[in-house]
Amino acid sequence: MDDGKPGASAHPRRDLLRRAGRAHRRAGQGRPAAVRRLARRPRRAAHRRRAAGCRGHGGGRPQGRAGQGLIWRSHLDFLRFSSAENRHLGEDIEQAGGQALLDTRVRHGGSHHQKFVILRHDRDAERDVAFVGGIDLCHSRRDDAAHFGDPQAAPMPKSYGERPPWHDVQVAIHGPAVGEVEKVFCERWEDPAPETRQPIRRLRDHLQRMDDVPPLPKPGPPPDPVGTHAVQLLRTYPHLRRAYPFAPEGERSVARAYHKVLGRARSMVYLEDQYLWSTEVIEPFAEALERERDLRMVIVVPRYPDQDGWLAGPASLIGRSEALARLTRAGEGRVAIYDLENHLGTAVYVHAKVCVVDDVWASVGSDNVNLRSWTFDSELSCAVLDEEPDPRPPSGASRYARRLRLALAAEHLDRDPDDVDELCDPVTAFEAFAESAARLESWHKSGRRGPRPPGRLRPHPQPELGRLRRTLAMPLYRMVVDPDGRPPRLRRSKDF
Fold first, then answer.
1. Which of 403, 405, 368, 386 is nearest to 4 (CA)?
2. Which residues contact 194 (CB under 8 A, 6 or more apart)?
3. Nearest-angstrom CA–CA distance, 282 and 290
4. Cβ contacts of residue 414 below 8 Å, gap of 6+?
5. Coil, strand or helix: which one is 334?
6. CB neighbours of 475 closer than 8 A, spacing ≥ 6?
7. pTM (predicted TM-score)
8. Is a pLDDT exceeding 50 seen at residue 35?
């Protein structure tokens, strides 16, 4: 998607559903039955890596509602994925009167990683809203800013405890951009390729009447402009032999947007990312640090991988180790990497995918900073430029991007969100993160003597891998963990 939609409104929603509903609670009234059922019935939701796109239309009466869902069919359960759970979710949607497609129109080993929900209202377009971000419709995601975890926990490494704390971000979109998110859903729904290439699965879908693809209701006109935000949708689709009609050579607008905005970065790059794996993908960040000697970069990542096998863990760390080393060399003391813990000392799993550049450009979505997200899986992210300037010094910032960065900083530093104005300055913010993390790290090293200092940040250690495990895990990293989904000519040119 190349065109930004002006006149839209994008509001950050952090730490899942409890916070997601506060500012715009009225947008949830009269939700389509299928979407409401997704929120109400967590037992059958997916447990491991999954993605969903949901589209609903609500009229003035319950019988006037309709809902459709695109659900990634997922890899097999014995590989610690969620094939059975995702299928159950599709069955629940169908039984509730909605329509669901189990979609595997991706590369072998890939996934539909997009996560979005659209609510349209035939009689009241002002209530139309789309949610886009990193939040999955599944267990382990019902957390809040306290980060004590979801009572319905999904399997995670023991280092995250019995109720893994979870940090995530999404945006609520109002205005014309809602229609653009709906277009993404319609393009995938109307893709003429079969939902799966496997004959046995196709037969099972046919016998259970889950292979019908009824035509979608014609989308209504996009909502009227409501705010000062220009919202641009960024997508990734892989290159396929049987091409997507809407992306014949795939799409890599996520990657292109990062290259463009990092080429203009001057003062601060703030990044929260689940993986941060690939040296090739990290290169535009490193080049910006080498070009701009006053540029600083703050990175927040998970402390531990989400896979803890003898090879799976190292495979997840290979790319991060190389990427962080490259950034550290390029930044020469201007790059800081942190992870998070809650007030009980339990590591918080960072699932957020957020980037704020110079307090002007902000992106929230499903894509991670790696080759898989920039080329191989399907992804959907939302970049926002706010026409309204932020009045606080230093000048040149937009209101939306700065407020998003400061809201996240206030949470991580245990600061009052209304008392963070001094963090507008990139140097002050960089030092505040460093001082907070140093105090907490010192408290831990002292045996936790005395009161716990405020803040949730810990310095993230450089991953260390032995030569044997690195050598054995490298093929897994290249072929499974972080594959390349570009057309051959772009792989050769290392372009996106």
1. 386
2. 105, 202
3. 13
4. 454, 455, 456
5. coil
6. none
7. 0.88
8. no
**CB contact at 8 A, 211 and 202:** yes
Backbone angles phi, psi at 261, to 5 degrees: -75, -35
- Distances from the Cα of 287 to the Cαs of 108, 256, 330, 482, in angstroms? 32, 15, 7, 21
Do residues 361 and 401 make contact, with C-beta atoms less than 8 angstroms apart? yes
> 128: number of CA atoms within 13 Å, CB side?
28
Nearest to 223 by CA among 277, 158, 179, 163: 179
223-275 pLDDT, tens digit per residue, is: 999 999 999 999 999 999 999 999 999 999 999 999 999 999 999 999 999 99
Tell me the angle at which helices 312-331 and 279-291 cross, rounded to the nearest 10 degrees: 10
Alpha helices (runs of H) in 299-418, residue ranges in sequence order: 312-331, 371, 399-413
- Burial class of residue 374, CB neighbours in 10 A (0-12, 13-18, 19+): buried
Distance, in Å, from the CA atom of 144 to the CA atom of 15, rounded to the nearest integer, reads 5
Cα angle, residue 15 at apex, residues 117 and 112 outer, rounded to 5°: 40
Structure tokens at 52: 């969903």
For 429-436, the CB contacts below 8 A with 24+ separation are 429/268, 429/298, 429/405, 430/268, 430/296, 430/298, 430/334, 430/336, 433/298, 433/336, 433/338, 433/409, 433/457, 434/336, 436/412
Name the one residue in this structure whose structure tokens are 């019988």. 63
Per-residue model confidence as pLDDT tens digits over 324-373: 999 999 999 999 999 999 999 999 999 999 999 999 999 999 999 999 99
User: How far is it, in rounded angstroms, from Cα 171 to Cα 343?
Assistant: 26
Q: Which residues contact 89 (CB under 8 A, 6 or more apart)?
A: 38, 44, 45, 46, 52, 69, 71, 100, 137
Burial 301-335 (b: 16+ CB within 10 A, else e): bbbbbbbeeeebbbbbbbbbbebbebbbebbeebb
- Residue 369 is inside which H or E element, if any? none
Residue 165: cis peptide before it, omega within 30 degrees of 0: no
CA–CA distance, 271 with 95 (Å, rounded to integer): 41
Instruction: Count the helices and strands in the chain (H runs, E runs).
Output: 13, 18
Nearest Cα residue to 251 out of 72, 378, 362, 371: 378
Q: pLDDT by residue (tens digit) across 298-324?
A: 999 999 988 776 666 787 788 899 999
Q: Give 148-210 as a DSSP string.
A: ---SSPPP--GGG-SS--EE-EEEEEESTHHHHHHHHHHHHHT--S-S-S-HHHHHHHHHTT-
Which position has the higher pLDDT, 406 or 46? 406
